[in-house]
Design brief:
There is one protein chain. With 255 residues, this protein is α+β, with helices and mostly antiparallel strands. It has one domain: 4-Layer Sandwich (Deoxyribonuclease I, Chain A), CATH 3.60.10.10. 16% of the residues lie in helices and 36% in strands. It has 4 helices and 14 strands. Strands 1, 2, 3, 4, 5, 6, 13 and 14 form an 8-stranded mixed beta sheet that branches. A 6-stranded mixed beta sheet has the order 7-8-9-10-12-11, with helices on one face. Helix 3 runs parallel beside helix 4. The protein is globular and about 50 Å long. The termini are far apart.
Length: 255
């Protein structure tokens, strides 16, 4: 394949971009979340769905998020959220940058991005784990939020290698954690490895009723895990069709 047609790697030093201007400095005890692989905001009704889904959310974790794109004003001009965008690769023609993006009504106290050591075949792109921390009202702990888009078309060994970044990120954190995203768990072996990492870190999965899709090999790719929080509700919104992934909403209370 001609290298000029391949996505360009975003240098790690330039990978994080901060958008929006929230007014809050901490989260309340109730934390309402949205988790969604947005399919690069390609579908025409995405903007309307996104606006409605975010209307009452405190925390938003997006995968296949984009910047340098027609949807930039949704995030640049936002006064409700701070958006932390971690870019992985840039389209060689359009210059659109793709990655993961975390939005919160409070400003992040800490941000860090991990890039998979291995790349997807052919296109040579790496996948990301974005770590952000937020102050909590009436608590000395911070909420750790881990937004992950896991590597896809590689061996299990290379997949597990990226999962170890989760263990590294969580090793020293004693407070509550939300881990969510598109984990590309399209077979039971991958899911089993992911759950073992979560179990070692003391995380529980937010289980929900949902239908599987044939294009996802009848497996669920998107998940929500948590620790140090009480889960009040979780739902897969399968009536939303402005992405090839159904958005997930979840509500937590700080223990």
């Amino acid at each position: 394949m001609n290298n000029r047609l391949l996505p360009k790697k975003v240098e790690l030093a330039d990978s994080i971009k901060i958008l929006g201007s929230p007014k809050l400095i901490e989260l309340d005890s109730e934390i309402r979340c949205l988790v969604w692989n947005i399919y690069k905001a390609r579908r025409t009704n995405w903007r309307t769905d996104f606006s409605e889904l975010c209307a009452d959310r405190d925390l938003v974790l997006l995968q296949e998020a984009v910047t340098n794109a027609p949807t930039d004003n949704v995030f640049d001009l936002c006064e409700r959220y701070e958006w932390v965008m971690a870019g992985s690769h840039q389209h060689p023609v359009s210059s659109v940058i793709t990655g993961v993006k975390t939005g919160c009504t409070a400003r992040a106290e800490h941000r860090e991005v991990y890039r998979s050591n291995f790349s997807e075949p052919l296109v040579k792109t790496q996948k990301l784990l974005l770590e952000t921390h937020y102050a909590l009202a009436n608590s000395n702990n911070t909420l750790m939020v881990l937004n992950m888009h896991a590597i896809n078309f590689v061996s299990v060994m290379k997949y597990v290698d990226q999962l170890e970044q989760l263990s590294i990120a969580m090793a020293a954190h004693k407070g509550p954690v939300i881990l969510a995203g598109d984990f590309n768990t399209w077979n039971p072996r991958r899911l089993g490895h992911f759950k073992r990492v979560a179990d070692r870190a003391g995380l529980s999965e937010a289980s929900m009723a949902r239908r599987s899709k044939i294009q996802h090999l009848h497996q669920h790719l998107d998940h929500v895990f948590y620790r140090g929080l009480s889960l009040r509700s979780v739902e897969s919104l399968q009536h939303i069709t402005s992405s090839d992934h159904a958005p997930i909403t979840a509500t937590f209370f700080v223990d």
